[in-house]
Design goal:
Helix 4 packs across helix 8 and helix 8 crosses helix 9. The relative contact order is 0.19. The protein contains nine helices and four strands, in the order H-E-H-H-H-E-H-H-E-E-H-H-H. It is 52% helix and 10% strand. A four-stranded mixed beta sheet has the order 1-2-3-4, sandwiched between helices. It is α/β, with parallel strands linked by helices. The chain is globular and about 55 Å long.
Length: 202
């Protein structure tokens, strides 16, 4: 997601106009609200290396990994949007499609969990088509600037999790941006050039 977003930036900027910014939509989730805090993160030399450390990846840590991945997406959107020029040529948003019928839990093997998930889906889940509306909305609806850098749910900007906007969360977000760009620059040499050319410091 991060690599593709960075590599698309020059093309999105080129296709924008003064009257209409291009849109970059990242699919996130309301589950970012319940992601565990990264306890002791201020002592970690590298956040990404710690999250990939087999010793850190205990059962409890991995049970929260999906929620954490959605938190990191929200943080990425906030960091990217804050580095684009003002007025921005690209409006970036993190979008929650809601709890939808899908095959996301197809690998669940616990029969009690499968029954519980099926029951909750029957009672609460949106159809896949309904969820898709939330994704299409910020890509086509006017007034994209009001959604720039925001987390969207039910087609409206919503406040991000308390952790995301806390002092610790903002520092984690800043560090993750730096580490992510460093990693991606080693994967693709175009990344650093794009960052230098199109994005400013924050």
């Amino acid at each position: 997601m991060a690599l593709l977003s960075i590599l698309m930036l020059p093309y999105l900027i080129e296709s924008s106009t003064p009257q209409s910014a291009s849109r970059l939509i990242i699919v996130s989730s309301e589950l970012h609200y319940i992601a565990n805090k990264l306890t002791g993160v201020d002592q970690w030399p590298s956040i990404l290396e710690k999250l990939n450390d087999p010793d850190y990846c205990t059962s409890s840590a991995m049970n929260d990994r999906y929620n954490l991945s959605k938190l990191l997406e929200v943080m990425f959107v906030r960091e990217l949007s804050s580095r684009l020029p003002t007025p921005t040529p690209v409006a970036v948003s993190a979008v929650n499609p809601g709890f939808c019928h899908s095959r996301l839990t197809r690998s669940e093997t616990n029969p009690f969990m499968k029954l519980g998930i099926a029951t909750v889906k029957t009672l609460l889940a949106r159809t896949t088509e309904m969820g898709s509306r939330a994704l299409v909305h910020p890509a086509v609806e006017p007034d994209e600037m009001s959604r720039h850098g925001r987390y969207l749910s039910c087609c409206e900007p919503k406040e991000e999790s308390d952790y995301t906007i806390s002092t610790e969360g903002r520092e984690v977000s800043r560090r993750l941006w730096s580490e992510t760009i460093d990693v991606l620059s080693k994967v693709d040499s175009r990344v650093q050039r794009i960052v230098d050319e199109h994005l400013g410091a924050r």
